[in-house]
Amino acid sequence: MSDFRIPGITVYRLALYARVLENFLSEGKELVSSEELARACGVNSAQLRKDLSYFGQFGVRGVGYSVPALLKHIRRILGTDREWPMVLAGVGHLGLALLNYDLLPQRGFKFVAAFDVDEKKIGRVINDVYVYSIEQLPWVLKEHPVEIGVIATPAKAAQEVADLFIAQGIKGILNFAPVRLKHPKNVVVEHSDITLLFDKLAFYLRRLD
Prior knowledge:
By secondary structure, this protein is of the alpha/beta class. The protein contains 9 helices and 9 strands. Helix 1 packs across helix 2, helix 1 packs antiparallel against helix 4 and helix 2 crosses helix 3. The protein is globular. The protein starts with 7 loop residues before the first helix and ends with a helix.
């Protein structure tokens, strides 16, 4: 089955399984049953087994899963068994938080450059990442080829930045700006509008009254 036909929610759960397996491994746990892993992830064991079945057979009936082996398989499936160099556009409050989020490089996602239009920010070094003028983006990407571009700009600038990324060969974009981006089919774009999460939270909180 083509990976692009795998449901997005399944990919999300794979990442969740990996997080829980990492915690198990840090606790010295070597084996885990599907029921125990599913319970720790907040899903049922049938769903867990179905998600894993998209990619092959894992575990031994009556024994369970080897924690390090299953974690290795899931990391390979997700692509987090390698380093992903990234660039960031927009060094505002959110951009600064992303540059200083040390969990990202620990998971293989490493910023190699950042860009902004504010002259007060250009030339700064934040957590070992140099901030360039957005006008230097084509030159920097020729010197440092990357596959992932992160957008943390105001909404009005996001599409222009996305077009610049795509023109330089970037195939994966994570967009934090509150706007939907237009892009070719051969470019993967993930939108993450944090305000929508607050809207969802407010919806459920009102129904607790």
